[in-house]
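User: Here's a structure from my thesis project, written as structure tokens. My advisor, Dr. K., wants to see whether a designed sequence matches the one we expressed. Can you design one independently, without my sequence as a hint?
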């Protein structure tokens, strides 16, 4: 805790001053262009990996970067996404999974989270992912199975995202774009789902204009 308090002193004494103008501007209102949905995992720093400044990203985080589908209950996720899409008018939504995801590990090994009833219930929103893995990825195991699960889950959650009325409406208008990313902790690389090849590709090879809509086959593991 002491480390964090020292960090705040350091922020106020050093980092804040050169950015004071930006913060004063932001105090009048926010206009982020991107909703960034990712896992709560401490090893991901959305602003660091995108080099975004305060005010750039509207961020939603939870275990497993999960988006409960429409009708799943009045959760904070639907409210946060609705606000971002219908009130702030974000132009892009990124769902970013990550390597070594504990939530996806729990999805594959439900007995290991059996003593965590809230986690188990939460992971039911990723049941489609679990079934896709069981029925299509029997040839994989260990780290490769986990990585493929992370990738498939990003795609499943993008589909859930489309069921939300505010998102569906903006997609029809064509002024909202969805993106599926996976962040690899050990290399700092980001892979994006490319709809044409139906694979996750390095970000440099990704065309952000094409939405990740149709999935035609199982993905290669990055
Ligand atoms: Zn995670």
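Assistant: Designed independently from the structure alone:
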């Amino acid at each position: 805790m002491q480390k964090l308090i020292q960090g705040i002193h350091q922020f106020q004494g050093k980092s804040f001053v050169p950015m004071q103008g930006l913060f004063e501007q932001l105090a009048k209102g926010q206009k982020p262009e991107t909703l960034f949905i990712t896992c709560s995992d401490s090893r991901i720093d959305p602003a660091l990996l995108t080099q975004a400044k305060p005010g750039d990203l509207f961020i939603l985080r939870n275990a497993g970067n999960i988006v409960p589908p429409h009708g799943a209950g009045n959760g904070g996720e639907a409210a946060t996404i609705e606000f971002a899409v219908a009130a702030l008018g974000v132009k892009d939504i990124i769902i970013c999974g990550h390597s070594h995801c504990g939530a996806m590990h729990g999805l594959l090994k439900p007995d290991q989270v059996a003593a965590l009833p809230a986690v188990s219930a939460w992971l039911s929103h990723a049941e489609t992912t679990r079934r896709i893995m069981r029925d299509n990825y029997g040839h994989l195991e260990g780290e490769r199975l986990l990585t493929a699960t992370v990738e498939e889950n990003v795609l499943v959650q993008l589909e859930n995202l489309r069921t939300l009325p505010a998102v569906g409406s903006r997609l029809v208008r064509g002024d909202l774009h969805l993106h599926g990313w996976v962040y690899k902790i050990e290399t700092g690389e980001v892979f994006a789902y490319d709809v044409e090849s139906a694979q996750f590709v390095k970000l440099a090879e990704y065309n952000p204009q094409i939405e990740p809509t149709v999935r035609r086959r199982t993905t290669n593991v990055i």
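When you compare it with your expressed construct, this may help: The first strand starts at residue 34 and ends at 39.
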